[in-house]
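testing teh design pipeline on a random one, pls ignore if ur not involved
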């Protein structure tokens, strides 16, 4: 069910819980905002759990909850607890902006949350307001510290690097890993609808790594598992680690094991692919588990060998990132 025509087995499912977000990040949400899907057309908790159960029974062993901002979902803790109880699921993570995470983190930890990614693109409070169009920088930093205190190791910090915007902070982010179990993940700027992508604003993996090594010396490679999207390293003597996500300049399509279930119930087999299939509609029309498996299997089998190049992607219609799920 989860093997495509190129033999790639998909064991990682990302589930977007909501299209809503309490930030307005420039690279994620268009200036004019997005038209939210009416609540009745979003997956219910029962539908999410039904689909998750089906995917896990077919071989998914890792689920990541995304958004929008997943901590805005009122039943998040209950969902995490229900998902973590699925037989065969080894890992359940969340990608969050950290703004309201701190007050929920202990409950999420108890519910079974195993992995944590916090998005933060600047260490400067004034720049945070410019990038996110909102206040709250101190709360995000506090959430990172609370995650460390709760025992998450590593705490992953996602940083979208943009030329002339925050590329002067690369060394400052790496410094966070010196004494703390933090994995800073530098991400190449990617094109999505409404984010006014330009290759001139994109800082490449080669440039980012060069900036790190110029400041801290040669990076020590860390052995990564198959399907890992990041190139992982450690500065000599540092507690934490540094990673680079190279979607634009060094794509990792040949090892891709990821599928995305969006908040409206559409299955997306490639982050940059336009093709989607509605599992919500199939369920609400009375599909059995076998029917759903057939729909999923057909979609996965049609997955392309690789996504297009960055310039073609920039010219191709896709959803805004906030509606796909981080």
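output:
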């Amino acid at each position: 069910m989860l093997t495509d025509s190129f033999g790639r087995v998909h064991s990682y499912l990302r589930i977007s819980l909501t299209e809503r977000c309490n930030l307005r990040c420039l690279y994620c949400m268009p200036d004019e905002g997005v038209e939210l899907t009416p609540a009745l057309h979003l997956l219910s908790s029962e539908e999410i759990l039904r689909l998750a159960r089906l995917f896990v029974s077919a071989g998914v062993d890792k689920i990541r909850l995304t958004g929008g901002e997943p901590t805005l979902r009122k039943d998040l803790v209950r969902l995490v607890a229900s998902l973590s109880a699925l037989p065969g699921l080894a890992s359940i993570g969340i990608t969050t902006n950290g703004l309201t995470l701190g007050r929920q983190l202990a409950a999420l930890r108890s519910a079974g949350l195993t992995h944590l990614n916090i998005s933060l693109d600047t260490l400067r409070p004034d720049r945070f307001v410019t990038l996110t169009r909102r206040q709250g920088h101190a709360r995000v930093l506090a959430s990172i510290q609370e995650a460390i205190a709760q025992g998450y190791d590593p705490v992953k910090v996602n940083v979208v690097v943009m030329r002339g915007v925050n590329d002067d902070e690369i060394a400052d982010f790496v410094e966070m890993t010196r004494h703390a179990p933090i994995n800073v993940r530098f991400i190449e700027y990617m094109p999505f609808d409404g984010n006014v992508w330009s290759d001139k604003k994109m800082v490449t993996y080669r440039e980012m790594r060069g900036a790190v090594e110029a400041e801290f010396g040669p990076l020590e490679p860390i052995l990564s598992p198959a399907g890992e999207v990041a190139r992982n390293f450690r500065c000599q003597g540092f507690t934490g680690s540094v990673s680079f996500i190279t979607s634009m300049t060094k794509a990792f399509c040949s090892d891709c094991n990821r599928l995305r279930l969006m908040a409206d119930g559409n299955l997306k087999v490639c982050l940059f692919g336009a093709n989607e299939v509605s599992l919500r509609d199939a369920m609400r029309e009375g599909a059995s588990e076998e029917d759903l498996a057939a729909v999923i299997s057909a979609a996965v089998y049609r997955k392309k060998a690789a996504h297009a190049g960055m310039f073609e992607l920039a010219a191709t219609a896709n959803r805004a990132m906030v509606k796909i799920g981080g």
